[in-house]
Amino acid sequence: MTATFPAPAARATARATGDDVARDALADYLATHDPLATVDLTVPERTWVRIGSVSSADIWLITWPAGSSTGWHDHGSASGAFVTLAGQLTEYVWTGVATASTLGERAVREFDGSHIHDVINHGTTTAVSLHAYAPSLAAMTRYELVRGRLQVTSVEQRGESW
Asked: Which positions are annotated as binding Fe cation (predicted)?
């Protein structure tokens, strides 16, 4: 798998941000692993599995059958990055309104700890993505869109639901 990872942004300090760490962890993982070699594309539900840790970031592999989605959520205080390995995904980002971006194969998306989104496979085939979270993903807040506003529906803790 070859993906083009953006060069680290200019920093005011020498300290890397969480999304920098996550992006670099994805690049490091993909330099030595082929996550698609172990994926079962016939599973009918969205699946996610933590497959390792690189450079202080957790690495997760997610399969997305046609029509599957995450629902609106954040990643607690974790920043992250993900790359679409197969298929394409649509990411809806909440900034007071929903905006959409389609992420084709090899597209990389970075985000900080304040990011709220919903990711959906609108395609007709299973998509696969690789995600990194730094610091480790410990909690996720779930939201529901009600009358044009996001409302918290639950907070999931690592070990309880995933």
From this structure: 73, 75, 117
Annotated binding site for Fe cation: 73, 75, 117
- What does DSSP assign to residue 128? E
pLDDT band at 20; cut points 50, 70, 90: confident
Structure-model confidence comparison of residues 17 and 47, the more confident one = 47
DSSP-derived letter for residue 6 is P
Cα-based torsion angle of the residue sequence 79, 66, 123, 62 in order, rounded to the nearest 10 degrees: 30
Q: How far is 92 from 71, CA to CA, in rounded Å?
A: 10
Measured over the CA atoms of residue 24, residue 30, residue 35 and residue 36, the dihedral's sign is: positive
Which domains does the chain show, CATH number per domain? 18-157 (2.60.120.10)
Residue reference for tokens 């639950």: 154
- Among 151, 156, 154, CA closest to 140: 156
Place of tokens 């599957």: 68
Degrees, nearest 5: CA angle 106-99-44: 55
Q: What's the predicted TM-score (pTM) here?
A: 0.85
Angle, alpha carbons 141-101-38 (nearest 5°): 70
Of 2, 137, 19, the closest CA to residue 70 belongs to 137
